[in-house]
Amino acid sequence: MVSGGFEVYQKRLAELKERIAQACARAGRDPEDVKIVGVTKYVGVEETRSLIEAGLHDLGENRISVAAPKLEAIPAVTGVRWHFIGHLQTNKVKDVLGHFAMIHSLDRLSLAKEISKRAVAAGLVVPCLVQVNVSGEESKGGLAPQEVAGFLQAAKELPGLAIRGLMTMAPVAEDPEAVRPVFRGLRELRDALLGQGLLAADAQELSMGMSGDFETAVEEGATLVRIGSVLVKP
User: Fold this and answer.
1) Which end of the chain, C or N, has fewer beta carbons within 10 A?
2) What is the pLDDT of residues 136-183, one digit of tens each?
């Protein structure tokens, strides 16, 4: 059971923004270039509303079945941007399209084709991030770094799909410094793909960093940090 309310979330959000600002200062970055995606999978509708009232406008969900009640109660038209951040099954694409501002977990061509097909039929363009398994962990999803260029070449041919950048999940580590090479690797991969023209000039998003390591991710260039427990503590 998670306990929280407007004032609690407002305080946590302010503390989180200050930590991000300090990380940006260390890296010579503008804090405005980092967006907090609050992971709301463990909280219900009312606590999600409290988070929004506290000033959080980007919300992330891992599973459509868990997100559905919140999507119905708090639709995107309210100014909230919903992000789909979990593994997306191909047969769930129809349920996700139209509800989420961005899909962070595009990890295979079959999924890209299904999103494209459904998007074209609905008259939509779907912003997506390509998930990359920088660490090489078998338990992590995503394309191997060396597969991304070929994937982007194929994805360019798919209408209704807008690649906006890359996403990765770092290994769990007690010391955030241990995962710095993962975040740096994603940034360097993005920059290389931009240089090769495989990513559009405006496709610079880097979704990386979670509650235990987001400061390191920000120092290495994260533009989207996916924050759960720092905001909504069990």
Assistant:
1) N
2) 998 889 999 999 999 999 999 999 999 999 999 999 888 989 999 999
Within-domain flag for 74: yes
d(CA 222, CA 170): 12
pTM > 0.85: yes
DSSP per-residue string spanning 31-58:
GGG-EEEEE-TTS-HHHHHHHHHTT--E
Question: Which amino acid appears at position 156 of this protein?
Answer: K
Distance CA 171, CA 169 (A): 7
Report d(CA 218, CA 27) in Å as an integer. Answer: 8
CATH number at residue 35: 3.20.20.10
Any alpha helices (H) in the chain, and if so which ranges?
Answer: 6-27, 45-53, 64-73, 93-96, 109-122, 148-155, 180-195, 214-219
Distances (CA, A) of 224 to 17, 91, 104: 13, 27, 10
What total of structural domains would you count in the chain?
1
Matching residue, tokens 């600002």: 21
